[in-house]
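JOB MANIFEST
job_type = single_chain_structure
chain_count = 1
residues = 362
[input]
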Amino acid sequence: MSGLLEVPVSPDCEGLLRNIRREGTPARTHFIELFLDPEVQEAVCERFDLLSGLDPGDPFFGEKRQVAIQTFLGYDSVRCGLEGLAMPLRREETPDTAELSRMGGRSFVDEHAGPITSWEEFERYPWPDPERASTRALEWYEERLPEEMCVIGSGGFAHFAEYLTWLMGYETLCLALYDDRDLVAAISRKLLEMYRVVLSRMLAFDCVRIIWGSDDMGFRTSTLISPDDLREFVLPGHKMLAAMSHAVGRPYLLHCCGKIDLIMEDLIEDVGIDAKHSFEDTIESVIDAKTRYGDRIALLGGIDVDFLCRADESAIRGRVRETLEACLPGGGYCLGTGNSVANYIPLDHYLWMLDEGRRFTA
């Protein structure tokens, strides 16, 4: 067996799009990830000397670095959104015990109370202005991205359910769904209007060929709030984004963690998602999801993160082959982790997954 990642892969955005649209079995495995933790990106660059010739002082060093990383690893795209949409939250910090540890530790949103627990705090909150958010990186990609690659419009985007819990605090949100639904509705409308502008601006760039919303709505056994509350306060936002994307020929992908089978029909038939991402073996394997939904949407990723952390090389390669054999025929499947390439996944384990995907032949 040759070395890791030596089987050549060239970016092919058109092939990726055909695959997501389920237009036949792809000629090769296509890869996709919501994101790679910064520590993983740094480790990949160091191990494979990807930054040789790049100037850290270049104002677009970050964008050039992304192209180098994504191309080397075998992806067909880079992920990019608008800059300057940060929303202050209440966070707690804890040390990071990962091998590729994060300087400053990991931070978590306060689950009890966020910055908006009352109408007064809602009025005082420093909402970002999406009209003033920067498109600097998108402008660079529009002019410089290799033509065989594309941008996936994502990043800090479409967090309807998440920002309801982050801004209010999950505990406060649950109480407000009984005591002050008008406040929940006001935050929901604010998010919807903000993301309407954000997506409109992203779609102005031809290089943005795919839109990927990210919004965790569930946990291991159910949705975080009731399906009816999701239908009232969350799903209309995703339906709007999907409709905007479809109106200009872009597929709308959704990352959502947790057990959300109670709203899957809503997501497919009403919202109109084109693909579902985030799979955990303890909830539903991607192979089972392909069997249930693969004739209507694409399924993305699914190599369970816990499995990737613990399994040996033989098991990882076997799992990848099994998944591709089950999910690749007919299209509608991209290989990747069940969630994201977190810094606690051993780097070699992640690379074995990619390498086996490169070697796979249908």
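[summary]
The chain has one domain: 13-359.
The chain has 15 helices and nine strands.
exit_status = 0
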